[in-house]
Amino acid sequence: MLHGRGTCDMKGGLVAALAAARAVAASGVRLARPLAVHSVVGEEDGGLGAWATLRRGHRGAACIIPEPTAGAVMTANAGALTFRLTLTGLAAHGAMRDRGVSTVEAFADLHAGIREFEAGRQRDVDRFLGTALPYGISIGTVQAGDWSSTVPDRLVAEGRFGVQVDEPVETAKAAFEAAVAASCAGHGWLNDHPARVEWVGGSFASGRLPQGSPMLPAVQDAVVDLGRARPVERYVPAGTDLRLYAAAGVPTLHYGPGDLALAHAPREQVPVADVGHVARVLALTALRQCTVEP
Fold first, then answer.
1. pTM for the complete prediction?
2. What is the tens place of the pLDDT at every residue in 132-157?
3. Whole-number Å distance between alpha carbons of 181 and 201
4. 20 to 30 A Cα–Cα from 41, which one of 9, 12, 63, 282?
5. Same domain for 216 and 248?
6. Are residues 168 and 244 in the same domain?
7. Are residues 138 and 215 located together in one domain of the fold?
8. CB neighbours of 75 closer than 8 A, spacing ≥ 6?
9. Could you list the residue range(s) of the whole structural domain that residue 283 is in?
10. Confidence at 294, pLDDT banded by 50, 70, 90
C-alpha cells in the first residue's frame, strides 16, 4: 500500500497510464492508431489543463481517465459549483445582543433551509458509488465577526454545490439561488436583508459516456480477460475532466486504482497491486483499440 496525499487521487492512476504506454511501446506491436497520455494540471479547480490541451487540438477517438473507481467503471460524472454566501446583520454590544442581529444565528436558519433543498435533489443514488448524497451541498468555510464582544454583523460562507447528471449549469445555479431566496423569505431579518449568492472558483458541468459506446464493454472485457470479475457501471459523484473530453466529442470513461472515498483525506492511500492491474487493463485496451484501422 502506498500512503500519502495525492497517491489515490490520482497519482496512482497517472503511474498506471504511464506504465501502460511504456508496456505498449516495449511490446513492439505496430499500432494503426496513435496512443497518447495526457498529464494535465488544474483538474481540482475547473480543469484548465485539460481544457487547454483539448483546445490545442489533442483529441482522440476515445479516452480513459484513471481516476480512482474502486473497481467499477465510471461512465458519468456529477458536476460541482463553488458558491459564496454573504449575510449582513446588525452589530451590537455583546452584553446587549438582543439589540443586534447575529449573522451566525441567521446563517444557522438559512443552512437548515439549504439542507432541505439538498435532500430534495438526490436522485439515482444507486447509480453512484460510495455516497448517499451524490448531489451534496457542503459548506467548506465560514467567517463571521471581528471581535468576541460584538454581535457579528457580517458572515461569509463558501461551499460546494452538486450539479445533477445532465442538468445544465445555469439551471443548477438558478435552482440554488431560488432555494436561498425562499429560505430568506421565511426569515424575519433575511426577508428584508437577503443573503447574496456569488459563484466563485471551480465550475464543473456534468458529463457522460454516450449510451451504447463500445468503450464500456471494451474496458469491462479487458478486466475479465485479466482475471477479475466484470466491473459494474457506476457514476462518480464529483466534477472531473470527463465532461471536458465528452464535450469535445471524445467518448470518455473512468477506470483507475484506489477508492475515491479515501481521497482528499488524511488516510489517502492506493494499493500497489491495483495500480499494476489498472496498468494492464489500460495496456490491453490500448492494444485492442489501436491495432485496428479506424
1. 0.88
2. 999 999 999 999 999 999 999 999 99
3. 22
4. 282
5. yes
6. no
7. no
8. 208, 209, 216, 233, 234, 235, 253, 254
9. 2-77+206-290
10. low
